[in-house]
Amino acid sequence: MSDRRIIPIGPYHPLQEEPELFRLEVDGETVVDLDVEVGWNHRGIEKLCETKTYDQVPFVVERICGICSTSHPLAYVQAVEDAGNIEVPERALYIRTLVAELERLHSHLLWVGLAGHFLGYNTVWMWSWKYREPILDICETVTGNRNHYAMMKVGGVRRDILPEHVDYILSRLPEIEKFADLIKGAVLDDPVLHARLKGVGVMTADDIHDYGAVGPTSRASGVPGDVRRDDPYAAYGLVDWDVICVPQGDVFAKAVVRVLEMYETIKIIKGCLEKMPAGEIDSKPKVVAPGEGIGRHEAPRGEVFHYVRSDGTNRPIRHKIRAPTYVNLPTYKTSVIGESITDATIILAAIDPCYCCTERMAVYKHKGDPNEPIMTGSDLVRLSQEKTARLRKEFGL
Amino acid sequence: MNILVLVVLFFVISAGTAVVGLLTTWIDRKVTARVQYRLGPPWFQPFADVVKLLGKETIVPHAASKAAFLISPLIGLAGVSLVSFIIWLAIFDPTGSGFIGDLIVVIYLLILPALAMIFGGLASANPLASVGASREMKLALAYELPFILMIVVVLIKSGGTLSLGGLISAQQSGGVYVASISGLLALVVAILCTQAKLGQVPFDAAEAETELTGGILIEYSGTPLAVFKLTRAMLYLTVPMFTVVLLCGGIGSGWGIPLGILKYVGLLVAVVLIRNTNPRLRIEHAVKFFWGHVTAIAIIAVALAVLGNRLGIGWL
């Protein structure tokens, strides 16, 4: 006898902090199908950007997501620089890399914590968020803010990194290294975590190619895609680091990739501080020539892509954003189906989804005539009146 | 004893267990918070939670089976109250109170809270609750086997005494059972079963807030939820206390009282530590764990106890 039911995760669910809806169709405890619905929090960022000047847009795209708050501006300024052929001073490139890597560090720690929480391992959650604090302190000292750094600017960066900042960063980094060691030992060697995570939600390299998945999701399945190395920008081609790639493709592999990437990130930060040349931090461009350009950045969750078209005025006439979660989300079709509900939740979390980056306008297709609206204003009024009448009857008012 | 005295005692002991149990959950929450670099709640927080819930509206889902939905919290509370009554009477007065076979009654009554949760979850007609209920059912089936085997160890050591008072007196005169290899193994089994009976991580799959958003309790609100919380809090005191009686010789008198409290606190610390250093187990892993590893330990303990009895070696 089949016992199929729909288990909803969302739109408001303690699993994830953002509104999104997964309908898991389960047979007993096994997920047999799944439907993903985003679009609960559409803000029209792309349209909004077209009404702002080139220097105002970074502040808007920074607020797409609190965790990727330097990935979007970085990709955007690179797109504008590409469109207008704008030079960037070398020191600014190093500072961009530095801030972007600090963000990766705190984003990966945030994920480790959330993954612990989803597994019911709240100690890991609280500890990794505590050890995220030194990074946020560094960010606050260097940029003035814990999140939303406002460092990126077309043609350079907004703030310079002073010699005392360098000393401060170097003095706080060992705390993070120590915690990375702790996590590597305590989490990656925990037999219970192995039992929970190994062989769960496996994605093969072919699946990654089919869905075009990016970032740690692809690197955990043996596909070493990383924009930082494949298409170097900022100072990524100038410092020494490695792409972390493991072949297993399960949730545990994704955790391994993220934890090991923290070491590479610390390596990049140290390399930047060491090699950073003196000089200008801003080429102060006055106009953006007509043209179109793209900017790519390896955000903590994968490649973020911005496209900007300029017509020579002070505003972009088209700005297109593609966040990494947008391509990683469909991989759920391969990784979640066939697993149990217990595993489904951690698999959903394993790509480190960011729904506010991914939000799109949702279009509901009408079952009958496609030109007819699904509901008109008067329909909504009627629904509301019916409900009031029903409640009145129920409570005898 | 006079029946009236017994009834009064029953209510006094149940209320006392509820108060101390709620305090215990506060200790659990506070220690957990300190382990996790948080401040944690003030001592009266569990009381405030229950009082607040008692004053809230009780919502019964349309599709729910109303009677079963509302009665099951009471069944759980009744079960745990009776257990605490029997155990505390045995602790305070090992020789004078109790009856032959009260150990068996306690074993039966201790499963009532889990059964009540299952009935409540199934009655609430919510898919998440029924998934939670089925998990709780599997978990109960899993941990009852080693739990009974653990009690068999005690029975072998005591030579078949089926009364709690008898077990306490025997241990107070002849040494506690835990001071032997089989007793120690039985204690390990007892701690793991306690963890599961209390529904704590790693065995909290039935509630699993990040998967099932509360599972069995998802549709409960107001007074019934408060009763479930109270039941859970009373179990926090009663289940470890049962282990203290079975294996550690109860509480005793004079200097035994602080020592007895220490025994209980030791078990509580074990529960809190386990819950803070483990992720939630998948339900099939939990079943495998209890029927595999834990049952194996329990069987070894039984074998050692039999061997010790036959050969007359106390430390086995």
What does this protein look like?
The complex is a heterodimer of chains A (397) and B (316). Chain A is of the alpha+beta class. Chain A has a single domain, classed as Orthogonal Bundle (Cytochrome-c3 Hydrogenase, chain B), CATH 1.10.645.10. Chain A is 47% helix and 13% strand. A 3-stranded antiparallel β-sheet of chain A has the order 1-2-3, with no helix packed on it. A 3-stranded antiparallel β-sheet of chain A has the order 6-7-8. Chain A has a two-stranded antiparallel sheet with strand order 4-5. In chain A, strand 2 and strand 3 form a beta hairpin. The longest helix of chain A is centred in the N-terminal third of the chain and has 29 residues. Chain A is globular, with a radius of gyration of 23 Å. Helices cover 73% and strands 0% of the residues of chain B. In chain B, helix 1 crosses helix 3, helix 3 runs antiparallel to helix 4 and helix 3 runs parallel beside helix 10. Chain B has one domain. The termini of chain B are far apart. Chains A and B meet through strand 1, helix 4, helix 5, helix 8 and helix 15 of A and helix 6, helix 9 and helix 12 of B.
Task: Name its key features.
A: alpha+beta; Cytochrome-c3 Hydrogenase, chain B; 3-stranded antiparallel β-sheet; 17 helices; B: 316 residues; mainly alpha; globular
Which SSEs are present, and which pair or pack?
The complex is a heterodimer of chains A (about 400) and B (about 325).
Chain A: E1 4-9, E2 21-27, E3 30-37, H1 45-49, H2 57-62, H3 71-84, H4 90-118, H5 122-130, H6 133-143, E4 152-153, E5 156-157, H7 163-186, H8 191-197, H9 205-211, H10 216-219, H11 227-230, H12 251-275, E6 291-299, E7 302-310, E8 316-322, H13 324-328, H14 332-335, H15 341-350, H16 355-358, H17 377-395
Antiparallel strand pairs in A: 1-2, 2-3, 4-5, 6-7, 7-8
Chain B: H1 3-35, H2 45-54, H3 66-92, H4 102-110, H5 112-123, H6 127-158, H7 164-174, H8 181-197, H9 209-212, H10 222-247, H11 256-276, H12 283-311
Helix pairs in contact in B: 1-3, 1-10, 1-11, 2-10, 3-4, 3-5, 3-10, 5-6, 6-8, 6-12, 8-10, 8-11, 8-12, 10-11
